[in-house]
Amino acid sequence: MLSAELHDGCRIMLYFPETSLIGVDPGPAEYAFYESMIQDPSVRQLPADFLSSIDDPSTRQRLQRWLSEFQPSPSVNAAIQARKDHIDTVEAESNRITAALLRMDTLAYPLTIIAMMLGVIALGHMLKWTAQSIILNQGGTISAESIRGAEIALLLMAGMSIVDLVWTILAGQAGAMREVNPLAAGLIDSPMSLAVFKITATSLGFALLYVLRTQRRGQEVTWWMCLVCVLVTFRWVMFDSMNA
Questions:
Q1: Vertex 68, ends 62 and 72: CA angle to 5°?
Q2: Quick one: angle between helices 216-243 and 144-173, nearest 10?
Q3: What are the Cα distances from residue 233, in Å, to 40, 46, 136, 153, 160?
Q4: Three-point CA angle 209, 210, 213, nearest 5°
Q5: Domain coordinates of the chain in residue numbers?
Q6: Fewer CB under 10 Å: which end of the chain, C or N?
Q7: What's the CA angle centered on 204, arms 200 and 207, to 5 degrees?
Q8: Per-residue model confidence (pLDDT) at position 175
Q9: To which H or E segment does residue 13 belong?
C-alpha cells in the first residue's frame, strides 16, 4: 500500500504476503521508482539498482509483476507526480547554483584585479583633482582642468559601476550574497532585468552629473559619489578575499 503523503527523506515500503517488508530508500532509486509508477503499466520497469539489492529471484519477479498490474489511485498518482516534480526542481536549482559558483570562481580573480586597479586609480585621481581644484579655482571660477577632472571621475565611476553590476549578478546567482536594495532585490533572479535597472538608474545619475560638471556644487557631488564607488569597489575586493 502506498501513502499519498510523500516528503523529503521518506522511505517507500512495499509489503507482500509471505514476504518481508521491502524499502525503497530516498535517492536515485526513489526517483526511478516514481518514474516507473507514472508510466504505462505495460512498459514499467523497476530500478536496476533497486532490483539488484533483492537477492531472492522470486521476490524480484513478484515485484515486477505487481508493478505491471498496480493501478495507483488518483491521490497517490498526484502525490507521486508532485514528489517527482519536487525532486526535479531541487536538482535543477542545485545544478544552477553549482554552475554559478564555478562561474564566479572562474571570474573572481580577473574581476578582483580590475576592481583593485580601478579603485586605486580613482582614489589617486580624487586626491589629485582636489589639489588642482584648490589651486586653480581660487578666483571663484571653474577651471577647464577641474572640469576635465570631473569627466575623468565619471568615467572611472562608470567602470566601477560595471564591476559592481557583474559582481552582484555572479554573487546573487551563486547565493553568496543578499541584495539589500529593495528595488534591485526583486530583480536579483533575473540578470537581464537587474542589468537594465542598474544601467538605466546609473546612466540617469551620470547624465545629471555630466550636465552639472561645470558647476562647483556638481563637482562636489561627483567627488563624493566617486568616493562611494571606490568604497563599494573595495568592498567587492574584500568579499572575494573572504570567500577565497
A1: 110
A2: 30
A3: 58, 55, 30, 14, 6
A4: 80
A5: 12-72, 97-243
A6: N
A7: 135
A8: 73
A9: strand 12-16
